[in-house]
Amino acid sequence: MLRIGIVAGEASGDLLGSHIIQALKKKRTDIEFVGIAGPKMMSEGALSLFSMERLSVRGYVEVIKHLFSLLRLRRQLLKHFMSNRLDLFIGIDAPDFNFWLERKLKRNGIKTIHYVSPSVWAWRKNRIKKIKNAVSHMLALFPFEPALYHGAGIPVTYVGHPLADILPMEPDTSAAREGLKLKSSALVVAMLPGSRQSEVQQHAELFVKTAKLIYAEYPNAIFLVPLITRETRQIFELAIFHENESLPIQILFGHAHDAMEASDVVIVASGTATLEAALLKKPMVITYRMSKVSWQILKRMRLQPYVGLPNILAEKFIVPELLQDDSTPEKLAEATIKLISDTTYISEIKAEFTKIHFSLKQNSAEKAANVILAHLP
Questions:
Q1: pLDDT for the residue 295
Q2: For the CA atoms of 233, 234, 236, 238, what is the dihedral angle to 10 degrees?
Q3: Could you confirm whether domain 2-160+362-374 is CATH 3.40.50.2000?
Q4: Burial of 100 (0-12, 13-18, 19+ CB in 10 A)
Q5: Which of 125, 225, 339, 365 lies 20 to 30 A from 147 at CA?
């Protein structure tokens, strides 16, 4: 039996990992997967030694608070992998956590594959040297990434993004609304505050206050908020309670895809969800808040004017970004209302999003599985 170590740090990595496991199982039946996995990877048979939620921390200050716990967890995981020999290790995103593991394993003769290039093109370009010491092969999701790795002498393969394979070119908004029992005449606003508790903590009150302002302008509006854990639901429900408002906010347990597909417009915390909204051809406002210290550190290391994936892929601002101090209920509501009424702009961004979709549609799980198989004994 072949043994692959695999670590994903959040919901988007769990999705990518589940697709890889699925594709590999079709080609070989003699592989077991062990490490840190979310529900989707576990449903494909991965054994998770620790809860994935423990890795879901974003922002420098937030990481420092959990640092000792994360370092201890990482050492325990390495000890397990060294005591129970691996044939290969796959790190899915979570670069600060996974690159350390990969470097240690690679030094011990274990091949390491990293799936999802960190944003070296956007932040901390000097990381490329550390990546070379840690990674046997990089799997890149975006077409502009391989050139960076070729230049540094790191083996890399562009595999595209699995979401582009899964999602149809034309979303079925009517069917999504029917599935969620929403009126076809309603203005549907999907609000995605992030998957981590720290993100929802930052965005919950902001989103509720924004919904209140939009609802004042559009009394037929319905707000869908998909959340994946009991803890994040409680944080958002508390924000609604504190505002003491009777707003048509529906908290969904998961169903982020359905919420976005059913929507007219999306308000989304920067991250993978912005790409999903783009592939669903939805107008969106991207926002993000973090602690002031984390923001100051990150701002100094930024190499591009945009942080949202749709803007990065288009290499221009095609959707608004309201970050940190600009992320206020008034500005978010104003930007969202502007999107709703601008039909010419909506047509233009749908055309841009269709171009992005075609460029990322690469049968990525199959490509990634082929690279991984080439590194197995």
A1: 63
A2: 160
A3: yes
A4: middle
A5: 365
For 58-67, the pLDDT digits (tens) are: 544 445 556 6
Backbone angles phi, psi at 33, to 5 degrees: -120, 130
Domain ranges across the chain: 2-160+362-374, 173-360
Q: Which residues pair with 284 in a beta bridge?
A: 266
Q: What is the distance between the alpha carbons of residues 11 and 251, in angstroms, rounded to a whole number? A: 18
Average per-residue pLDDT for the chain: 90
CB 268 within 8 A of CB 278: no
pLDDT of 122 > 60? The answer is: no
| Measured distance CA(175)–CA(255) in Å, rounded | 14
Q: Evaluate the CA torsion angle 124, 129, 133, 139 in order and state its sign.
A: positive
Residue-wise pLDDT tens digits, 154-193: 999 999 998 999 999 999 999 999 999 999 899 999 999 9
**The pair of three-digit structure tokens given for residue 268, joined into one six-digit string:** 């989304």
Check if the beta carbon of residue 137 is closer than 8 Å to that of residue 367. no
Let me know if domain 173-360 sits in CATH 3.40.50.2020: no
